[in-house]
Amino acid sequence: MSDPIRAVINLDLPGARISRHIYGHFAEHLGRCIYGGFFVGEDSDVPNVRGIRSDVVDALRALNIPNLRWPGGCFADDYHWRDGIGPRDQRPRMVNSHWGDVVEDNSFGTHEFMDLCEMLGADPYISGNVGSGTVAETSDWIEYLTRSDDSPMAALRRENGRDEPWKVPFFGIGNEAWGCGGHLRVEQFASLARQYSTYVRNHAGNEVYRIAAGANSDDLHWTEVLMTSFDDLTKVDAKAVPFQGISLHYYTLTGDWHDKGNALTFDTEEWYLALSRALHMEQLLTRHGQVMDRHDPHRLVGLVVDEWGTWWNVEEGTEPGFLYQQNTLRDALVASVHFDAFHRHADRVVMANIAQTVNVLQAMLLTDPESGALVKTPSYHVFEMNTGHHDAEGLDIHLLGVPSRSVDGGELPLVSASASVKGDTALVSLTNLDHAEERTIELDLRGRAYLEATGRLLSASELSAHNTPDAPEAVAPVTLDGIRRTDIGLSVTLPAGSYATISLTLA
Ligand code: AHR
């Protein structure tokens, strides 16, 4: 048994606020995410309200889902919003060329999405079409959504059954403009981002946070050029800039884009490789953050990681373009390591969206196409266990004596941690990345006394453990036993391959 690790936390020195929006989600017209995942139609045997699955809504409400990005992804730059309004049987069809080359009937459109957001209590994050759309189309969409008077678009919305305008706090200016969103040069896109942002207007008191399509993983040049497209950020205030945030996309895979690695079958080396690739997010946030800091010392522009998560080879027998994959304990730890990084960079990272919510990539929820059964994945449970971090103030953790392992040419620390405080409650997140060895962690708690400590644990006997309709709770949180009060704080032992949260009631 190895020496205990010491984790020093100053409970009285809170840092940057951890926005609840880093716990955001993403729903694309891709495979069974929208159709069969969120939306089954009113005639379905699956219980629904206006076609939207009730079990999915209930499960996501339990996560306090803060925002939902839609309609893509790559799909967004092919999407023309007018095709998705009006009577469903009269909506034009289109080809979903990115995802399975299937015909999209547009039965889930603007009204259905906004209805879904209202049911979820989530803020809509709409991704606008820069790749194949027009400035006028974008301008009309935001008018349609948010205008309250008798303007042409507000009148059209009313004709389609919605009197009151909606609130749309987040609007994306394109998606992956360097790739599926038009294969643009960054200089060209930076100009378009300024232009499109101008026409995403604030109507009727609705203030929009505009997010320009940002870099692909390590592409610092993209961030650099986007940041130079602002006027002098040392002088102007945030409201004067054309867009308020820029995005970043980074996926975790153990192979390459031709053979990404498997969700369920992996060896110990691939376990560590996935976790080390997940930890690369920390470096990305640091390096993109440094580029942004040079131009924007007051941190007026936010970094929005609006696509992240694992991307494995599709499950055997499923349509390759539908990106359906299973989700194991390893995916859960990939998520917890990401959240630790997002918490540490809360002064720059204002929002993040896991890809994607239902039935696609690192999903929260999987639905069975035959029986309709809903399964919560191990990743879902990390989101649920972390709800206490939403809008809390980050606390630095200094970890001492953490062993590491050589992976992929670098050193992977075998424990990851983060913490936050909200009023009289502190929440500490601890991940034991070691596949075989348990770890004892001594929390050295300074600055405030605590009255009570309770813990929750997510683990399993197999690293590839996952949930299915027959075994929906194979990986689910349980009470973390054995929390021991010590002179300096408390001591706790985490099993191999596990994630735990400790909630402290402060004096
Ligand atoms: O999330 C799946 C796809 O990944 C998105 O559509 C695209 O933006 C990214 O390449």
List the helices and strands and how they pair.
Layout: E1 5-10, E2 24-26, E3 48-49, E4 52-53, H1 54-61, E5 67-70, E6 94-96, E7 102-104, H2 110-120, E8 123-128, H3 135-146, H4 152-159, E9 170-173, H5 186-199, E10 209-216, H6 220-228, E11 245-252, H7 268-295, E12 302-310, H8 329-344, E13 349-354, E14 365-367, E15 374-376, H9 378-385, E16 393-395, E17 397-400, E18 404-407, E19 410-413, E20 415-422, E21 425-432, E22 439-446, E23 450-458, E24 478-479, E25 484-485, E26 489-494, E27 498-506
Parallel strand pairs: 1-22, 2-5, 2-13, 5-8, 8-9, 9-10, 10-11, 11-12, 12-13
Antiparallel strand pairs: 1-17, 3-4, 6-7, 14-15, 16-20, 18-19, 20-21, 21-27, 22-26, 23-24, 23-27, 25-26
Give descriptors for this structure:
TIM Barrel, 507 residues, 6-stranded antiparallel beta sheet, 22% helix, 8-stranded parallel beta barrel
Question: TL;DR of this structure?
Answer:
This protein is an alpha/beta fold and 507 residues long. It contains nine helices and 27 strands.
Textual characterization of the structure:
With 507 residues, this protein is α/β, with parallel strands linked by helices. It folds into two domains: 119 residues, Immunoglobulin-like, CATH 2.60.40.1180; 318 residues, Alpha-Beta Barrel (TIM Barrel), CATH 3.20.20.80. Helices cover 22% and strands 27% of the residues. It has nine helices and 27 strands. An eight-stranded parallel beta barrel has the order 2-5-8-9-10-11-12-13, surrounded by five helices. Strands 16-20-21-27-23-24 form a six-stranded antiparallel β-sheet, with helices on one face. Helix 6 runs parallel beside helix 7 and helix 7 runs parallel beside helix 8. The longest helix is centred in the middle third of the chain and has 28 residues. The site of alpha-L-arabinofuranose has 10 residues, from loops. Belongs to the glycosyl hydrolase 51 family. Homohexamer; trimer of dimers.
